[in-house]
Amino acid sequence: MPRRLAWFIGMVLVCSLVSPILLPVRHAHAIGWQGLILYFPQTGHHLSGEFLWAWISNGGVMTFGYPITEPFTQDGMVVQYFERARFEYHPQNSGTRYAVLATLLGSWLTETRRNEPAFRPIVADNPAALNSDPERRYFPETGHTLAYGFKAYWEANGGLYTFGYPISEEFTERNPDTGEFYTVQYFERARFEYHPENKGTPFEVLLGRLGAQYAQARGVDTRPVPMRPDAIEVPAQLLDYRWSRAVATDDGAIFGRVTAPTLAIRNAPSNSAPAVAWTYARHPVPIRGLTLGDPVEGNPIWYELGDGRYVAAAWVEPLVPDIPPRRFGGRWVDVSLRSFYAVAYDGDRPVYVAIITAGRDGKTPVGVFQIFYRVRNETMDAATVGIPPGSPGYYYLTNVQFTQYFKSGGYALHGNYWTPPAQFGGFTSNGCVGLMNSDAEWFWNFLHIGSTVSIHY
């Protein structure tokens, strides 16, 4: 979540066993988001400001759980505890990716257990051999492996940037809250638990309540407090577990997906504000902050998209991409002909998503390809791929932007200005992967000759 927080490096804490870890950068905010105060009746605590944005933009309740304290000063800094984490505020880093930090609670909890068999690093003479199984991955940084269900969960919910490296192998351990035994694995910031009773659901893997354990160990008061008069109860949309899997960008946004057939993008968080643009069902929208506005379907929260543009949160849900059938190193793109999204990856981490058009009648090729030729602005003439003028399927298009060819025969990623935006998300092309020009430009700047393009249903 990678998703998809970017956190502090090198701070010396009062508690020497605890140090922070970097999480993904998501720090751009709406103008009015700092005045938004949410109350969680589940635990009786509030969430606001930098901590609120860090929470929602990096996984929300699925990753961090509910807040279990108010913000207070500890170890010389403002902190707030959650069921599975502790957040730290560093004002000296305000306006950067390091304003909110997390504590390495997995490392703290297991500090005295490093000689146990599961925590001993695996010494690999040939790390590549350990990585030859696509269902298993070896991390030389800590000497541990990640496999099967835990690997899939780690990759889908933020990976390195959310949980850190594995610091143990899988083993069986008693859950301190329930007394039940589960297969677990520890990471720098988390404990994964496998729950077979939830098999086939999003809750097959659950995270340990390390924040609650740390709070108890330090004698922190977690009793509920009354709801403040200037707060609102957290809307159900923000408790959607899928936020932990939503695509997040390097420049501070997290992607939602439009659920209304047509949605106005307004210049203020008001139903009466002028519409500056329109977006459509299943289209991605980059959320850069939260603010209060006119209630829509009972929800007063609006999402800020940047440049003074707002959409009602009631009509936006987390955009969770399909799990790629394969993953690749470096910068690459995964194109799903089932969901009609092109997702840009930087290694394991999805960093951008765009809605596409694809080829009618199975004309878009399926497979793994590499970009071999790029044209910034060109004229596309079907005659060059064997379709003469006057024939069915002939086309002649000028000023086609940001074309990146990945297969001979004229197959490319490129801007598509002739298809109305409302018709994106379907089979409308002659075989290319069409993008709106703004998205095509983004992919042009992200990819290069040799970048992998993986296309599948």
TrEMBL record:
One GO-annotated biological process of the protein: regulation of cell shape
Active-site residues, as the UniProt record annotates them: H414 (proton donor/acceptor), C432 (nucleophile)
Alphabetized InterPro entries for the sequence: LD-transpeptidase (IPR050979), LD_TPept_cat_dom (IPR005490), Transpep_catalytic_dom (IPR038063)
Pathway: Cell wall biogenesis; peptidoglycan biosynthesis
Name the record gives this protein: ErfK/YbiS/YcfS/YnhG family
Ranges of residues in domain L,D-TPase catalytic: 331-456
Alphabetized Pfam families for the sequence: YkuD
CDD domains attached to this UniProt entry: YkuD_like
Keyword Transmembrane helix: no
A Gene Ontology molecular function term of the record: peptidoglycan L,D-transpeptidase activity
Domain of life according to the entry: Bacteria
Keywords in alphabetical order: Cell shape, Cell wall biogenesis/degradation, Peptidoglycan synthesis, Transferase
Family of this protein: Belongs to the YkuD family.
GO CC, one annotated term: extracellular region
